[in-house]
Design brief:
The complex is a heterodimer.
Chain A: H1 2-11, E1 40-44, H2 49-65, E2 69-74, H3 83-86, E3 91-93, E4 99-102, E5 110-114, H4 120-131, E6 137-142, H5 147-152, E7 158-163, H6 167-183, E8 189-194, H7 199-215, E9 222-227, H8 231-239, H9 251-266
Helix pairs in contact in A: 2-9
Chain B: E1 2-4, H1 12-28, E2 31-39, E3 43-50, E4 55-60, H2 65-81, H3 83-89, E5 101-107, H4 114-121, E6 126-135, E7 140-149, E8 153-154, H5 160-167, H6 176-186
Classes of the chains: A alpha/beta, B alpha+beta.
Chain lengths: 275, 188
């Protein structure tokens, strides 16, 4: 006990601790900085705005379930169903002007903003919130998926690409990746394969695409998984009730939650005990 | 392979033979022996060329493909019927008339099933090319692309511009080589 007291006093005067017995030279190297937390996420789908809206509706709920405050910024694409439609059964006019709200007991509200009816100032406000270090605000962006819209956009974002396993769609996704990384090398780009013939095939194509992107000095990609489609998913879209809220067994629901969990794992947003 | 040739002065139609001869010389290693053999009544060959292993009877179509094909076949008949005459005219150092023959047709528009039909029904080996004229009539550019040959079969030319346009990815500045590399890397 006497020893411990003396040791304790001595420690106060020690400025560096060497945990290894081996001698060290020079200054201790600084730990690797954690990757910058980015909570502005743009979701892409090269061919299906509806599938994109469907994914965002479920993704927003999964983020909210992990205590994130989610705003969705969406530009409606033609007559296609948008995120509001996919969450139609839950949406109400909320306290925030010009935004629809999804309120579920015990979860932070999800705010849905339609880009056409909002000013640029509102978007910047949401960007600022989602850019606050250590914050809980996420901004999910859904815009028409064009190369031009990426080039024009001034706001850096991370990207989630939903991708069918077809050559043309994959090429389009590669074009998006190229343009995103050329303008923002720090962006995190994650891939989700939309109803591939098999998970193994999707993984194989992902590895090849990742290798190709890396070889072109465009960084690396993150694998989030595959999305299944089934009758439950179709029904949920028709009813405006996101599938992740369902308690019924469904391959599509499981794949959605797996993908969202993979995203949250990458972002350090998993709930305690979830991993 | 698509080759964009340098513009030539003068009327395009008048010089098509020379322009195409340039293409066949550079691209296929053929040497032009004679232009405009025969006549419109009994059969005409727009260009007689050889590479030392075969002789090519080239028809440069200026009408629809059916007409171009008919002209090519009548030119072939004329060539066979006038074999002795041609042997007297040309020395063996110019062309060896005993070499195998090949029909070569250039047309502006080919029906999709033209290669299959020609290869199934015509005993003489046949090559089909599509050519296109660009620019003004007096100062044209010409592109020539091989669509069918007995050795390579159907050659589907890749229109990368159309692909980029269809996908709306022109602004990403992916080159033809990028797209080829992408396909190769992904095994597509």
């Amino acid at each position: 006990m006497e020893e411990r007291t003396r040791l304790g006093r001595g420690l106060e005067e020690v400025s560096r601790f060497y945990l290894s017995g081996s001698p060290r030279e020079g200054a201790i190297s600084e730990p690797e900085p954690a990757p910058a937390e980015r909570r502005i996420v743009r979701v892409f789908h090269p061919s299906s705005p509806v599938a994109k809206s469907l994914f965002i509706a479920n993704f927003a709920l999964e983020l909210a379930r992990r205590r994130c405050r989610v705003s969705v910024w969406e530009a409606r694409e033609g007559e296609n169903a948008c995120v509001c439609d996919m969450m139609g059964g839950l949406v109400r006019q909320g306290a925030v002007p010009d935004a629809l709200t999804v309120s579920l007991y015990g979860l932070p509200d999800i705010l849905l903003h339609e880009a056409a009816s909002q000013g640029e100032g509102r978007f910047e406000e949401l960007v600022a919130k989602a850019s606050t270090p250590g914050g809980q605000d996420y901004l999910l962006i859904s815009l028409p998926d064009t190369v031009e819209s990426i080039i024009r956009g001034a706001t850096p974002f991370d990207a989630v690409m939903l991708c069918p396993l077809e050559e043309r769609e994959l090429l389009k996704v590669f074009a998006f990746i190229k343009v995103i990384r050329e303008s923002d090398p720090a962006s995190r780009i994650s891939l989700v394969f939309d109803s591939p013939p098999s998970g193994e095939r999707a993984r194989e194509i992902f590895e090849r695409l990742d290798g190709f992107v890396s070889a072109r000095s465009l960084g690396s990609l993150t694998w989030l998984g595959v999305l299944e489609r089934d009758e439950a998913l179709e029904r949920s879209a028709g009813e405006g009730m996101p599938l992740v809220l369902s308690h019924d067994a469904s391959a599509a629901r499981d794949s959605l939650t797996d993908v969202c969990r993979a995203f949250c794992r990458e972002a350090g947003r998993l709930l305690p005990g979830e991993d | 392979m698509t080759r964009i040739l340098k513009p030539v002065s003068g009327k395009a139609a008048k010089y098509l033979g020379q322009i195409c001869a340039q293409y066949f010389r550079e691209s296929q290693g053929l040497r032009a022996v004679e232009y405009d053999l025969g006549n419109a009544f009994t059969g005409r060959i727009d260009l007689l060329a050889t590479d030392g292993t075969r002789n090519c009877l080239v028809t440069i179509g200026t009408a629809d493909f059916a007409h171009d094909l008919f002209r090519s076949l009548t030119g072939y008949r004329w060539f066979r019927e006038n074999h002795e005459f041609l042997s007297r005219v040309y020395g063996r150092d110019e062309i060896d008339l005993s070499l195998p023959l090949r029909l070569v047709i250039l047309s502006q528009e080919l029906p999709a099933d033209a290669p299959g039909l020609c290869s199934e029904t015509i005993a003489v080996p046949i090559e089909l090319y599509r050519y296109r004229l660009y620019g003004s009539g007096d100062d044209p550019d010409i592109s020539v692309e091989l669509l069918w040959s007995p050795e390579e079969g159907l050659v589907i030319p890749e229109d990368f511009d159309a692909l980029r346009r269809d996908l709306g990815i022109e602004a990403a500045c992916l080159t033809d080589g990028d797209i080829r590399d992408f396909r190769k890397a992904l095994g597509l």
